[in-house]
């Protein structure tokens, strides 16, 4: 029996979250075939099987946090589908679901009126495990919330009594009102009690809470952002850019561009190209402060240009890196951005996609942000924030005209970059974007 373990993902990564199981218990697995996908604090990782056989046991459920080196599954090496079918009656691959409570004995499942805090979850009250409650995963809690089942009342069929999704699915849905209310004897005071309890029940439903542990990715994002604010002398400078010429250029050549390259010419490639030219003119913005030796910090100037592009995904904000962006054409830049964004949305980014960035661009404008102060992406010392495009009246050649304008924000580490350099860097980007032909002829 081969034990499939959580592989080493990165030097600083100690755990991962079980994402999606690609193979079911009892299913044949070929060598090199993906068995499960893991989510770490930096990237997703497919875990392939190094052997061929049949998956006999899965030791974690989706949503579980597992340590590096922990056993994920057991695979019977060399087993075939025929052998699996013969062994199935004697050795079921999946444990039977926990027995559902008998409808004839509702009093066993009914909580005591003296403990209203343990009232069963209703449709508006998502079930959430308490500190002393059963072990569960996000999938089981989600099913419990949708079905209106109190997860504390269930017996888990998983390892160490863990409540699984199938346990929740097999349990009968609880009535929306507390059992002792529906079973109360008829009396003159019953209508008053029911009417008094109904608003309280509605109030509890409105005030329902759900406690969800932070994923490794979100924990890492939080730690890095707080670290950046606590350690860097962060300052932000602003400017605005007129996109009239860029938009006219895109409109003029868009059809020919799509016909030749098979993709549209976007705005991000203009800003990446402009940023690279500005980084060459102001090398400190492309540097890194190595303060591992607090007595003698060192400024490391990067002679390569790897631009991180912030991508919003279902798992959170990620910043994959366009490597050697200065060597790419406009089409190659757009293709690289599109590929990274697609893999980010599909959860297919790898650890190497996040490494060695020297400068970051964040585009909050796609969500309608008019102005913001982006936070540094350590160990980088600067980040450019793009924002939404708005038509605003501006003065051009002594006349007031409407132009498509965008606010730009540059946050930077004042320990490394002087205010003069930061402002001049941002002005250089403005000049290049407003006259995009200057990017081509490098003036």
Structure description:
The protein has 443 residues and is an alpha+beta fold. It has three domains: 2-87, OB fold (Dihydrolipoamide Acetyltransferase, E2P) (Beta Barrel), CATH 2.40.50.100; 98-104 and 115-183, Dihydrolipoamide Transferase, CATH 4.10.320; 217-441, Chloramphenicol acetyltransferase-like domain (Chloramphenicol Acetyltransferase, 2-Layer Sandwich). 30% of the residues lie in helices and 23% in strands. It has twelve helices and 18 strands. The chain has helices at residues 81-87, 106-109, 138-147, 165-170, 179-182, 190-206, 216-231, 244-261, 268-281, 330-345, 419-434, 437-441; strands spanning 2-5, 15-21, 28-29, 34-39, 44-48, 53-58, 65-67, 71-77, 234-242, 287-290, 298-301, 307-309, 311-313, 316-318, 321-322, 359-363, 382-396, 399-413. A six-stranded mixed β-sheet has the order 9-18-17-16-12-15. Strands 1-8-6-3 form a four-stranded antiparallel β-sheet, with no helix packed on it. The protein has a four-stranded antiparallel β-sheet with strand order 5-4-2-7, with no helix packed on it. A hairpin with a 2-residue loop joins strand 17 (382-396) and strand 18 (399-413). The longest helix is centred in the middle third of the chain and has 18 residues, at 244-261. It is globular. It starts with a strand and ends with a helix. Residues 86-132 and 176-189 have low confidence and may be disordered.
């Amino acid at each position: 029996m081969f034990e499939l373990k959580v592989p080493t993902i990165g030097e600083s990564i100690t755990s991962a979250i079980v994402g999606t199981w690609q193979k079911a218990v009892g299913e044949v697995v070929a060598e090199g075939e993906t068995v499960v996908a893991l989510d770490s604090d930096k990237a997703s990782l497919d875990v392939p099987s190094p052997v061929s056989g049949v998956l006999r046991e899965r030791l974690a459920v989706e949503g579980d946090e597992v340590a590096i080196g922990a056993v994920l599954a057991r695979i019977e090496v060399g087993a075939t589908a025929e052998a699996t079918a013969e062994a199935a009656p004697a050795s079921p691959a999946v444990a039977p679901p926990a027995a559902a409570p008998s409808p004839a004995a509702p009093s066993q499942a009914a909580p005591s009126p003296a403990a209203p805090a343990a009232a069963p979850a209703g449709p508006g009250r998502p079930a959430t495990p308490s500190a002393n409650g059963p072990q569960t995963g996000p999938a089981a809690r989600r099913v419990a919330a949708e079905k209106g089942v109190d997860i504390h009342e269930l017996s888990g069929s998983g390892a160490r009594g863990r409540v699984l999704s199938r346990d929740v699915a097999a349990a009968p849905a609880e009535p929306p009102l507390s059992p002792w209310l529906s079973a109360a004897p008829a009396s003159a005071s019953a209508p008053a009690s029911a009417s008094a309890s109904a608003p309280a029940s509605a109030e509890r439903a409105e005030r329902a809470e759900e406690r969800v542990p932070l994923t490794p990715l979100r924990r890492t994002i939080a730690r890095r952002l707080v670290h950046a604010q606590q350690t860097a002398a962060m300052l932000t400078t602003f400017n605005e850019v007129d996109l009239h010429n860029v938009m006219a250029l895109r409109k003029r050549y868009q059809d020919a561009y799509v016909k030749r390259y098979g993709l549209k010419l976007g705005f991000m490639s203009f800003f990446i190209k402009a940023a690279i030219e500005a980084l060459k003119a102001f090398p400190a913005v492309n540097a890194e402060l190595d303060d591992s030796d607090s007595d003698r910090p060192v400024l490391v100037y990067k002679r390569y240009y790897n631009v991180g592009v912030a991508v919003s995904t279902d798992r959170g904000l990620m910043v994959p890196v366009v490597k050697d962006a200065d060597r790419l054409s406009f089409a190659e830049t757009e293709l690289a951005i599109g590929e990274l964004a697609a893999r980010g949305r599909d959860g297919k980014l790898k650890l190497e996609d996040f490494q060695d960035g020297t400068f970051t661009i964040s585009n909050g404008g796609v969500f309608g942000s008019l102005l913001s102060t982006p936070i540094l992406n350590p160990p980088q010392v600067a980040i450019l924030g793009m924002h939404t495009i708005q038509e605003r009246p501006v003065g051009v050649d002594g006349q007031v005209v409407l132009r498509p304008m965008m606010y730009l924000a540059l946050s930077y580490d004042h320990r490394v970059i002087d205010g003069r350099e930061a402002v001049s860097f941002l002005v250089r980007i403005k000049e290049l974007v407003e006259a995009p032909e200057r990017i081509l002829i490098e003036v």
